[in-house]
Amino acid sequence: MPETAPAASAIASPEADITAALGTRSIVLVGMMGAGKSTIGRRLSARLRLPFLDADTEIEAAAGMSIPDIFETHGEPHFRDGEARVIARLLDGGPVVLATGGGAFMREDTRARIGDKAVSIWLKADADIIMKRVKRRADRPLLQTPDPAATVGRLIEQREPVYRNADITIWSRDVPHEKIVDECIDALHARLRGSDTKEASNTLNATP
Ligand code: S3P
Fold this sequence. Notes:
Blueprint: H1 14-22, E1 26-30, H2 37-48, E2 52-54, H3 55-63, H4 67-74, H5 76-92, E3 97-99, H6 108-117, E4 118-124, H7 127-134, H8 148-163, E5 168-171, H9 177-192, E6 203-204
Parallel strand pairs: 1-3, 1-4, 2-3, 4-5, 5-6
Helix pairs in contact: 1-9, 2-9, 3-5, 4-5, 5-6
Bound molecules: shikimate-3-phosphate (S3P).
Residues 33, 37, 56, 67, 101-103, 140-142 line the site of shikimate-3-phosphate (S3P).
């Protein structure tokens, strides 16, 4: 009989345990612009052998225009409604690893949907790291202000109490990406091991 490689889920590993425990639930990355949601999400999806989706990219595809153009033409409330609809649709197609835009988790219905259909990871980043990273791109409409650093500070203050409701918190800092991914895997494994429920409390990898 020819030898066949066992399916990923049949190989004992933290990654296989995680995908088995997830079932159809997704992993959703939340947090500020520049926290590394897409970069870490893409690598995490490769480790877990799950598809990676970026909500911002999906919103742009659905609207047929860029995020700055959506903000300029239709305004932020229109963008937020589209964002909520797109995330709801993507969560119905799980399991995936989904990177959300920084404002998505602020919406109560989106948070509830993520709570039902996913395990959420808050990538928590300090203001100076965020500023360093967002300076590389000029396509964030919320940061087109006279003082982007002050805007980031204000958004952090408004949003962190809400991001804190994510299932897992991972401190996103200037270390190799694979280290952050390892910490996500460890935290997901600890949370999901032996249980397909979400009764465990928020897991934090490290503190500054
Ligand atoms: C936003 C973050 C952006 C994008 C939009 C609004 C926000 O996504 O959704 O510009 O409200 O923080 P990233 O967090 O991927 O930059």
